[in-house]
Every structure is written in C-alpha cells, then in structure tokens.
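Hi R.,

Here's the chain you asked about this morning:
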Amino acid sequence: MRFMLLMYPGPQDEVAGMIPSEKDIAPMMKFNEELTKSGALLSLDGLHPSASGARVRYRGGKTTVVDGPFTEAKEIVGGYWMIQVKSREEAIEWAKKVPAADGEMVEIRRVSEMSEFNLDPASEITKQAERVGAGLEANQKKA
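And here is the predicted structure, written out as tokens:
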C-alpha cells in the first residue's frame, strides 16, 4: 500500500519563509536516510512557503487564481513523503518518527490505486491509465 505523509509546518515556519539551516535540516536528513534504507521511501520533496505559490479555485465553471501567502497556515503543506508499506499502522509508525518541531503536524493519507476502481480491463479509461503510467515512467527517467 502506498501512503502520502503530508508535512504541515508550524505557523512560525510559514511566516519566516526562510530556507532552513544545515543544523535544522540534519535530523530530517537522518530520518529520510532511515526511510530510504528501509526500502519504504518512493519519493519526497519540501515545498517553498506559500508566499511564492497560488491557489486555483473552481466554481460555477470558472476559475479564480489567488496568489499567496495564504492566511490559514494550518492548511499549508510544507512537504511530503510517498512511502510504500504493508499497512496504515506501519505508515503511522513512520510518521511518529518524523523529527517535527513543536506545532508541526504530519497527515497520513492512503493513495488510491487504479485496481481499486474495478474498471473493465478493456475499457478506454484503463488504456488511458496505462498510457499515463508509461508516460510517468518516461518522465522520471528524463528528470
């Protein structure tokens, strides 16, 4: 099973908007290395503060773009890990090991797999999903 661990930084991190120091990054790199060695880590990234981002909202067939920063710091994702583990409980155990600071939070979400949608193997949607999967693999090789 794949799970996404979403890191929500504390409000002080979002407001500061600074790149962490080597000293601040060290515990997270140790955690990332442990996760990698376990074979569970599929991908990870940190995100810049919301001041450099935007939100696109959809309502009534129209889109609205709102530039950051965003006022609700508790709703701002600061980074993520994509992991593959045997159970939700194992994902929770990994999340408990994240070297988070006071006020930070990690949300655990199971990733939907195409096999869960119970699609006809001969359907156009299944074929599209296969093309997208092949395209993702090709894009990852380019990166």
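One quick note: The mean pLDDT is 89.

Cheers,
M.
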